[in-house]
Amino acid sequence: MSEAKANTQLVIITGMSGAGKTTAVQSFEDMGFFCVDNLPPALLPKFLELMRDSRNNIENVALVMDLRGREFFDSLFDSLDRLGKEDWVQEHILFLDAEDQALVSRYKETRRSHPLAKDGLPLEGIRKERRMLDELRGRAQTIFNTTTLKPKELREQIIERYREQEQQVFSIQVVSFGFKYGVPIDADLMFDVRFLPNPHYVEHMRPLTGLNTEVSSYVFKWTDTQKFLEKLKDLLEFMLPQYKREGKSQLVIGIGCTGGQHRSVALSEHLSEHFSKDFYTHVTHRDIDKRKGL
Length: 294
Known about the structure:
This protein is α/β, with parallel strands linked by helices and 294 residues long. The protein contains 9 helices and 9 strands. It has helices at 21-30, 44-52, 76-84, 100-110, 122-139, 151-162, 213-220, 223-246, 263-275, and strands spanning 8-15, 34-36, 60-64, 89-97, 142-145, 171-178, 189-192, 250-257, 280-285. Strands 2-3-1-4-5 form a 5-stranded parallel beta sheet, with helices on both faces. It has a 4-stranded parallel beta sheet with strand order 7-8-6-9, with helices on one face. The chain is globular. 33% of the residues are buried.
């Protein structure tokens, strides 16, 4: 049997039921990937044999694996371990997640039962599935939280992440957020900046955001802010190459203040710009528009 090309790309799409795997696999199809939906993990070794045959001319493959095939699920980690020993294929796990409340709402909208709670409440199945997938989530190189994403937005993020993936070996996602709205569940690192002076208490700045020059200047003028940034950048400049060397392809850094409107926004913009010289960076302001009355 002839050998496959050394840079064969294999993306395994998995995650919570109802988190958007159908949208994901359709996005990969549109990018020209060879896609297989609901491949039992026990069949992965056989599928790899077919991939190795270069006569099939398969270079980019996306496989959906989830708990619809849970009778084979115990064999998934064995298959992944074998896959890690293959030097001709580049494995990448994409895990789709969403908050419990969002998943319950989606099941109610579609009137479908959860695969792990055919005769029970969807939340029971969701919690059981989350426990079962916990270890797999920890092995994923990329995690998308689809709680607030529309299908079109998820599709755009997938295409941005995986199109010409070889040029985006390691990316940094900086997310500003407000603690009053909850912490981002997909953050790898999280920093609380609520100890810094708050522009919210300067009346004319209250309706503005950290994207405004006057607000960002206010945030950065304090000695505590300068010391914090100096120490944080020094820490990240040490850590980021270590994550990259370890094989992680994406790092999500959460910067949180009270409402996610002023301090966290200004600092997230600064960090994203600072590290863009050496890494592919993207900044998201999760809660910037959530303040009532704006």
